[in-house]
Write a structure and sequence with these properties.
It is built from five helices and five strands. It is of the alpha/beta class. Strands 2-1-3-4-5 form a five-stranded parallel beta sheet, with helices on both faces. The longest helix has 26 residues.
Length: about 150
């Protein structure tokens, strides 16, 4: 018998067709996340900073964003605010190597869906995506029931 979370397991049918935007100024981190997400069945778009990330959002239907916080030109918190203003339905998961309680609290208060500390393991990203996908499905269910 499958549990509720099995329905949202990464690599399941629910992840197929979903597009993740990965925004990080470190090429190695971008590549690791991209490879991992592609293996799990997601489509992946990448950007090297927040400005590029906003450009990608303008031209691509994105389901979930994963963004670093510490980046040049536009940091992840500024990027988060811009995303939430222009694309309020797109959840943003923030990652950082410079975490403290204030940063995590600030990120969540600004609208981040989740907050992950580097160095992270693949399962950290997997669990954050599972939680986010469950919340997306709940929101879709609520909006569908309101239309009836």
């Amino acid at each position: 018998m499958s549990s509720h979370n099995d329905r949202y397991s990464i690599g399941s049918e629910s992840s197929k067709g979903m597009t993740i935007l990965v925004v990080d100024d470190e090429p190695v981190v971008r590549k690791v996340l991209e490879r991992s997400l592609l293996r799990e069945g997601f489509r992946v778009v990448t950007a090297g900073n927040g400005i590029e990330g906003l450009e990608r959002l303008e031209g691509t239907k994105v389901d979930i964003v994963i963004s670093d916080i510490m980046m040049p030109q536009m940091d992840g918190l500024e990027f988060l605010v811009e995303v939430k203003c222009s694309y309020p339905h797109v959840p943003v998961i923030l990652i950082t190597g410079f975490a403290d309680q204030f940063t995590g609290k600030q990120a969540l208060e600004a609208g981040a869906e989740d907050f992950i500390v580097k160095p992270f393991k693949n399962h950290d990203i997997r669990y954050a995506l599972q939680r986010t996908m469950v919340r997306l499905e709940q929101v879709k269910g609520k909006s569908a029931s309101k239309k009836k």
